[in-house]
């Protein structure tokens, strides 16, 4: 029997498949005294069944394969007209997690400010920054008239070639849950529902519409699902978007285990589940599994599942009215809970200067300094600097797909005119070159496009320092076929470094990349997709106006052969459309919960740069590591000191190892800003789930008895300080 079949049977048994056959559903409102639930009950008490059912599906909002905005719609991913007389707002539903999208440029005033990639926000390890970033895009959505933002991508980056990793937060469930949950909280502080997505296991783009992600349910609870669980606890998203793919053979939007058993029963999630666009495949089966709203089904789905077929299911008794009532209750309670009813959007011009500054600071905190030999950085303000490549003279690159934002100021790089999805790469008009010249007016800074290597080499030879900008364009719908930088970047960097070893590489990438020239250059700054304020952020980092403080949330491998799945079947499809619809593709995630750095730890592999790694312009020392267990809480205490000559931010990380000797797990961290010579004592409380294994038979977390190891370090590979602590076993309260 195929492993996936075994897992699906296991998960079917473990997950109470009876839910799909009419067993009691996870009713949010039952007994809830939450004011939002009470208000929703009052509104729905006067609503006909027909009106309730009109809440269960949105329509295409325009821009989808040339569609136009529906009457009442603003022009976005989807629109839902509220029942007349209900007092509820229409739902104006917009993408996405990096800023307000304007699909197919459908709105003439649809440009907005873009955050840097989600990987950048996550690499700041700063939950407050993530919250501010979310508040900025939530405010812009509200000012443009939207009340639902499809942001909050929390899929773990199981593969460093993932086409949408730039929208996500990285390898670790704790870090992902807290960082994405904080962004969601920020969005919702602006009375806009944020949508946690793509639930679950949408960790690759190849065959995303049809593939089955097969994983032991226990391992899934300890990894991908733990990330979603913590994001929900941290950000309380008004909605969750179920993913395209299958999980253990069942479509995510038809999985009782995911949607009802885990999300609504175990986690007591009170909000609603919307489908991804084209991820609804049935009416009764999906509704009974726990799907609450079909998204843009008029254009995205094969049949009018929730638009008309569901009514027939209710009439025929295949779906009880109580399920319809629960679906409507969940949707309406979220409208009240997130302030959509009491605080409808008030159209206003965007505060572009303020919002761009938020994006800039996000990038300043999220860029990761990987290499700084001979302290080549920060650059001298009077140096002769050769800036080369990456369209650095005009802007910074961004990721493609439904998270793409239209740049304010227009696009600055004319691409080859790619017609099929997602079109040409979009550059934001935030020029690193112009920003560098503004930051260092006394420096002599030249620019070479990098298209002719010989010319670039001449420019490098004539300078004190060469700064090469290199890009890797990634986008929704396709995974990176390899881990190389775009175009001739590897050859260009190697040639420039050979001509002038005082070379700094600034990488604008959607993913970790291979760096064959790494030993030949002096400095490397990973800037991810830098966002609308990216050029200024990069310049300020290079000249030391702000010190880098980012730390990796994804492992940079030495080679693809180190990965848990070196080959992605079908990744070299001829086009994106074919790529997404490979049939019967299944990927058995037999690494289980050992994602990323845990895989490297378990297999004693040495990456190029480890999870948690990042340099700055000063140095830090930590000591005094103590692990104390009181009142069932493990608290790790230590001292951090700035041992350098510049102020800086450190992010010491706490990892734990369970008695069974499995891979180490991130258990907490602290972001500490210190002046030269300053020291501080820090305490980190460990989430007990990181000390436990999930017991799939009893649906609970069990902390085993025995000796736990505790590491304090600056990456997942840092063994310099560790202590052990003995814990007696216990079961965590649900
Ligand atoms: C897309 C994406 C999802 C997005 C939705 C609406 O296919 O998977 O993230 O929010 O459709 O554009």
Automatic annotation (TrEMBL):
| PANTHER family on file | BETA-GLUCOSIDASE (PTHR42715)
Q: Where is the signal peptide?
A: 1-22
Record-level GO BP terms: carbohydrate metabolic process
Q: Look up the domain of life of the source.
A: Bacteria
Keyword NADP appears in the UniProt entry: no
One matching Pfam family: Glyco_hydro_3_C
- Fibronectin type III-like domain: which residues? 650-716
Q: Which family does it belong to?
A: Belongs to the glycosyl hydrolase 3 family.
Transmembrane annotation, as ranges: none
The name on file for this protein is: Beta-glucosidase
The UniProt keyword set, sorted, is: Hydrolase, Signal
Q: Does the keyword Cell membrane apply?
A: no
GO molecular function terms noted in the UniProt entry: hydrolase activity, hydrolyzing O-glycosyl compounds
List the SMART domains.
Answer: Fn3_like
């Amino acid at each position: 029997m195929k492993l996936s079949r075994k897992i699906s049977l296991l998960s079917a048994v473990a997950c109470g498949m009876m839910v799909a056959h009419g067993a009691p559903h996870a009713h949010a409102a039952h007994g809830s005294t939450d004011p939002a639930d009470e208000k929703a009950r009052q509104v729905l008490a006067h609503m006909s069944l027909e009106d309730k059912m009109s809440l269960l599906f949105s329509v295409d909002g325009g821009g989808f394969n040339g569609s136009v905005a529906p009457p009442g719609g603003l022009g976005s991913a989807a629109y839902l007209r509220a029942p007349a007389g209900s007092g509820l707002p229409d739902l104006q539903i917009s993408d996405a997690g990096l800023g307000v999208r304007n699909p197919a440029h459908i709105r003439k005033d649809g440009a907005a400010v873009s955050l840097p990639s989600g990987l950048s926000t996550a690499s700041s390890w700063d939950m407050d920054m993530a919250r501010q970033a979310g508040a900025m895009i939530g405010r812009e959505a509200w000012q443009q008239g939207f009340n639902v933002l499809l942001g909050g991508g929390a899929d773990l980056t199981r593969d460093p070639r993932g086409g949408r990793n730039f929208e996500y937060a990285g390898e670790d469930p704790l870090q992902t849950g807290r960082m994405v949950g904080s962004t969601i909280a920020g969005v919702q502080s602006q009375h806009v529902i944020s949508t946690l997505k793509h639930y679950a296991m949408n960790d690759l783009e190849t065959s995303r519409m049809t593939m089955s992600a097969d994983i032991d349910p226990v391992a899934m609870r300890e990894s991908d699902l733990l990330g979603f669980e913590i994001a929900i606890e941290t950000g309380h998203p008004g909605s969750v978007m179920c993913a395209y793919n299958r999980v253990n053979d069942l479509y995510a939007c038809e999985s009782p285990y995911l949607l009802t058993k885990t999300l609504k029963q175990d986690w007591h999630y009170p909000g609603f589940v919307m489908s991804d666009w084209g991820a609804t495949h049935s009416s009764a089966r999906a509704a009974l599994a726990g799907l609450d709203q079909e998204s843009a089904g008029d254009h995205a789905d094969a049949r009018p599942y929730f638009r008309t077929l569901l009514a027939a299911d209710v009439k025929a008794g295949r779906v009880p009215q109580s399920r319809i009532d629960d679906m409507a209750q969940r949707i309406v309670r979220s409208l009240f809970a997130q302030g959509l009813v009491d605080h409808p959007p008030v159209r206003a011009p965007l505060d572009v200067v303020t919002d761009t500054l938020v994006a800039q600071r996000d990038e300043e905190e999220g860029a990761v300094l990987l290499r700084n030999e001979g302290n080549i950085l920060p650059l001298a303000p009077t140096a002769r600097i050769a800036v080369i490549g990456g369209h650095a003279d005009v802007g910074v690159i961004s990721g493609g797909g439904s998270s793409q934002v239209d740049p304010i100021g227009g696009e600055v790089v004319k691409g080859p005119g790619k017609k099929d999805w997602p079109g040409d790469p979009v550059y934001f008009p935030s020029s690193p070159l112009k920003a560098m010249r503004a930051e260092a007016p006394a420096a002599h800074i030249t620019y070479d496009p990098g298209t002719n290597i010989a010319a670039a080499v001449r420019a490098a030879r004539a300078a004190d320092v060469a700064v090469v900008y290199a890009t890797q364009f990634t986008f929704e719908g396709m995974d990176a076929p390899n881990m190389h930088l775009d175009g001739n970047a590897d050859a260009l960097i190697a040639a420039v470094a050979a001509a002038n070893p005082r070379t700094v590489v600034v990488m604008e990438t959607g993913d970790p990349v291979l760096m064959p020239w790494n030993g030949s250059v002096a400095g490397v700054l990973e800037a991810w997709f830098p966002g609308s304020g990216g050029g200024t952020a990069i310049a300020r980092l290079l000249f030391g106006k702000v010190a880098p403080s980012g730390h990796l949330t994804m492992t940079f491998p030495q080679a693809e052969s180190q990965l848990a799945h070196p080959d992605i079947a079908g990744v070299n499809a001829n086009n994106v459309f074919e790529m997404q619809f490979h049939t019967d593709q299944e990927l058995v995630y037999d690494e289980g919960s050992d994602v990323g750095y845990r895989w490297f730890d378990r297999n004693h592999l040495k990456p190029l740069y480890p999870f948690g790694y990042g340099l700055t312009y000063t140095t830090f020392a930590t000591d005094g590591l103590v692990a104390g267990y009181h009142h069932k809480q493990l608290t790790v205490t230590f001292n951090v000191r700035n041992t350098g000559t510049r102020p800086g931010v450190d992010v010491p990380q706490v990892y734990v190892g369970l008695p069974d000797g499995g891979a180490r797990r991130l258990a907490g961290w602290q972001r500490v800003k210190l002046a030269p010579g300053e020291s501080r004592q820090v305490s980190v409380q460990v989430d007990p789930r990181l000390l436990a294994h999930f017991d799939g038979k009893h649906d609970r977390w069990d902390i085993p008895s025995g000796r736990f190891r505790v590491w304090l370090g600056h990456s997942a590979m840092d063994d310099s300080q560790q202590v052990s602590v003995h814990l007696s076993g216990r079961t965590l309260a649900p």
